[in-house]
Amino acid sequence: MMTRVRKDPAERRQELMTIAMELFCANGYEQTMVQDICKQAGVAKGTFFYYFPTKEDVLKAIFEEWAKKFADDFTRRAAGLDAVQKLRLFLQLSAQENAIEPLVDNLWAEHYKELVMALWQRIVSNGFNPLLRKIIDEGNEAGSMQVLHPEECLDFFWSLTEGMWPDEKKDIVTDESMAIRMEMAARLIEQLFGMKIGSMAHWENAE
């Protein structure tokens, strides 16, 4: 008979999320059952459901954890930067490969586009937009930005970034095309945030 190891609730919750992430990436979200996660974690189903009411809830938790790590990393690196530099940093970090990409690719391939978009909108609203609103406030106050309608500005900003990194074309976009997209995005972001021409030039390069 297997001896169950008692763990701190936060540690157990994190363990279930880590195992779920690994299985979702290895076997696919559709093919991974709650019992598979429990078996690998060595816990009963009741333990899983204590932390996550459904399989989708553990998926939400994985996305939220990634967003929190992004926000924490951004906040740490942004200390001492002005608003324009912070916006450049935000874009740089957004463009980097991240741990959640394989999971997103799997979900996309399994035709869970609506679920991915719903999770993404949740992250944008609760995690990323508060960071960007603060940048806008600082930029407006310093005079380096002129954003009269922050909410509308952010809506267009996210539409712009989606066009910069199109999921449907990411495997066929050439380096030349990507360079053109980044240059065009820089000009549009400058206009959108009311910044001086050149403020976002070569934003993809580290400060």
Automatic annotation (TrEMBL):
Residues 33-52 bind DNA. The keyword NAD does not apply. Pfam families: TetR_N. The keyword Transcription regulation does not apply. Keywords: DNA-binding. Transmembrane segments: none annotated. One of its GO terms (molecular function) is DNA binding. InterPro entries: Homeodomain-like_sf (IPR009057), HTH-type_Tx_Regulator (IPR050624), HTH_TetR (IPR001647). Gene3D superfamilies: Tetracycline Repressor, domain 2. This is TetR/AcrR family transcriptional regulator. It comes from Selenomonas ruminis.
